[in-house]
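[User] At your convenience, examine this fold.
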Amino acid sequence: MLKSLSFSLFFLSIAPSPVNSIQAKDITRHTISLAWQQPEKANGVILEYEVKYYEKDQNERSYRIIKTSSRNTDIKGLTPLTSYVFHVRARTAAGYGEFSAPFEFMTNSVISATLSCTSGGLRQRVNTSIITPWTCSVVLNLANHVGHVVSVPRRSKYSKAKQDADEEKHLHQGVRIYVDPFTYEDPNQAVREFAKEIDASCIKIEKVIGIGEFGEVCSGRLKMPGKREICVAIKTLKAGYTDKQRRDFLSEASIMGQFDHPNIIHLEGVVTKCKPVMIITEYMENGSLDAFLRKNDGRFTVIQLVGILRGIASGMKYLSDMSYVHRDLAARNILVNSNLVCKVSDFGMSRVLEDDPEAAYTTRCERYLQPVTCQSQGGKIPIRWTAPEAIAYRKFTSASDVWSYGIVMWEVMSYGERPYWDMSNQDVIKAIDEGYRLPPPMDCPVALHQLMLDCWQRERGDRPKFGQIVNMLDKLIRNPNSLKRTGGETTRPSTTLLEPVSPEVASALGSVEDWLQAIGMERYSDNFTAAGYTTPEAVVHMTQE
């Protein structure tokens, strides 16, 4: 009986088999309606399907992903007379199965008959008669030829849209949508899927550079066969660990292993087949951004600081585009290399929570003790960096990451000063709720502080997206004169919060354009925009210079 139970549990942990057949129920110029059967061996309850597709001539270099809980979906926004290749795979509690064999369909100019496809070729069903693979080949070749002759405008490489109830991510350069490793029944499968196993003999530990929750953090060297030796950072799992500690420790590797961006810390691999268990990442010579800034107080130009902020925003845009929420964005979790390139790190606390508001939030490092964090139901929250809705309702989204980014901006421009100084966490929460915000650091350009204030909008929908932040910083870098006007010469004490804007005053102004028109100064609208005064709140806080 025991053997039978053991076998059943093992069987349930197997991922589903591949989808065998995909049908195109309807094809038009811009849409292909797909349907497929459940895998022959589901090995559990199917939680969702993932459809990967790309233009045939792209050879999977630029693909898109759609997730759906049903066995059909409409692929919209396609280019006419273009061949697309589709793969489908299923997910259960045990994880994703293998992708199906490639199935190819072509958009055209008219609505077509029902098509079906198997790994053996393409068939068209017309009154149950079957057109041979040779006939299909001729049709496809002819259509491809026409497609090359006819000039058709292409879609942009990246976009985001909702396709009915399906979630669509348009990805490029091989970027995949983020998969939460905590959805895997077997955490080891997530590690195997997203992290490369490294032989311990390739690693040389040189010295301890820090202590984390799970063990020591060391610097060392990695020499893989056929590759040059490189410096690496090595996180080790301390002896006597529990299964849960091992799972939580390796979850960060399962997360990092999915990312590939110059402003995201790079995972080299893991060591799991011997002790100590290790996570190997690239080595960042200058350590954490907050300590680096304090050590180099006042040594950088404004353009250099904006460049730092631009790199961080670019990394966060990448994560946001993958539907990934960091939840602990702060200068202490940004690492700096020898070329002053900043990279987002510390993914141990990060989870996708938009659809999981009750999920527990736990810290992963002992540094998050009072007064940095505040104990709340389900875990600790770094209050000074966290959006008010995330503190109050545990609602973590990319918009709450934008709030945190505004705090990081303030940390950078103040050279690592502590946000809200020596205020208690409860005082910080109360002040934010009453509308108070951090003042501009000394010599901070007005345009940058206005961007911080935009990130700290009470309504999360009013905050800019990371893509918009990157664009704004690019404009400031291209126009250095816009950074000359600073707000650091006011008589306001440096440790006093910026007072909240009276709702009556702000509403009376309307938009900045309306206000300027009302006082006959609409010709200065561009000047106000260039200086960062884009909202009534910013106008209220104008100072004489």
